[in-house]
Amino acid sequence: MRDARVVAAVYLNLISRGRRVSEAKSFRYAANLLAGATFPPVRLFWDASRQLFRISDGGHRVAAHRLAGRRKILATFSLKSFSSRKGEQHGRRKDHL
Predict the structure, then answer these.
(1) Which residue, of 6, 11, 43, 53, has the greatest Cβ tally within 10 A?
(2) Phi, psi of 25 (to 5 degrees)
(3) Strand, coil or helix: what is 43?
(4) Per-residue confidence (pLDDT) for residue 7, from 0 to 100
């Protein structure tokens, strides 16, 4: 069964900066945004330990929205949190010790 997907406008200050992206590509996207272009929603996961969304797909689009001075971005995100997947190993026996 696939995770349910929800589309929402998310404030950029709630999204982690994540890994580095190409500055040139981000500036190109920002110029297109300012010219009226629209982009597909980014894909996010909730990281409960940081209390921020993490980017699964769309890092350049997030950077472009920030460069263009936007406050929100359209996003889809999984209802299953990022930290719950990381925590699946918690409590399991460590045989290597």
Answers:
(1) 53
(2) -65, -40
(3) strand
(4) 85
